[in-house]
Specification:
Layout (H helix, E strand, L loop, with lengths): L21 H16 L6 H7 L5 H7 L5 H9 L13 H4 L8
Length: about 100
């Protein structure tokens, strides 16, 4: 695999040797979003890879409406905004400094 691929996203199974199918890419994105949402930052090379146009269909198919990271990926790929269905914590939502992030 390339240097952008993070095998640590596969603690439950052997990591794939390549991501050729749409299902493989969607699985990778779901794992990436889950880790990132919990504060495990991806490699810069991983971010650059998933921002490439070849990932657009996988981002669209992934459909993780409860993931902040998924909504960021949608924005990066100029996909139509979808509703965020995750938890909106009042202590974060009402923080006036949030506008500067």
């Amino acid at each position: 695999m390339e240097d952008w691929f993070d095998a640590t996203l596969y603690p439950d199974v052997d990591p794939p040797t390549e991501l050729t199918s749409l299902a493989d890419r969607v699985d990778f994105l779901a794992r990436l979003c889950a880790a990132w949402d919990f504060g495990v930052l991806p490699y810069l090379a991983t971010i650059e890879e998933v921002r490439r146009p070849e990932w657009r269909d996988a981002v669209e198919a992934c459909c993780l409406l409860t993931s902040h990271t998924y909504h960021l990926l949608r924005r990066w790929h100029n996909l139509t905004a979808t509703p965020y269905l995750g938890q909106k914590l009042a202590y974060i939502r009402d923080d006036p400094n949030l506008a500067y992030i």
